[in-house]
Design goal:
The protein is mainly alpha-helical. It folds into two domains: 69 residues, lambda repressor-like DNA-binding domains (434 Repressor (Amino-terminal Domain), Orthogonal Bundle), CATH 1.10.260; 38 residues, no CATH class. Helices cover 67% and strands 0% of the residues. It is elongated.
Length: 124
Amino acid sequence: MTPFGARLRALRAVRGLTLKRMAADLSLSPAYLSALEHGRRGRPTPVLVKMICAYFDIIWDEAEELERLAALSHPRIVIDTAGLSPAHTELANRLAAGIADLDREAVARLLESLKETEAGAESA
């Protein structure tokens, strides 16, 4: 499941909506919506994210958060390390090979480290 898929499922659950009902309301197939929620489809288009925001009456910060989650929710990513150091390439390859074996705590530590790095780069 992707971050976007998890949030979408939570939004549906809070409002008591079935996947079939939401799909019909948005003129989507239930299979597509299910695949989106479970991370078997790529990230949603910006148009679809806006449709979902309108559907749930999501505005401002919550809409920005949903857009951010959508951007972070491509289940099959490619990491281009061309022009980077050999260590960068090794890291990308080791992460790709071992990501399924990481436990929740290890994933949380890696994410926190990356978020700290991003925050430091933004403030510089």
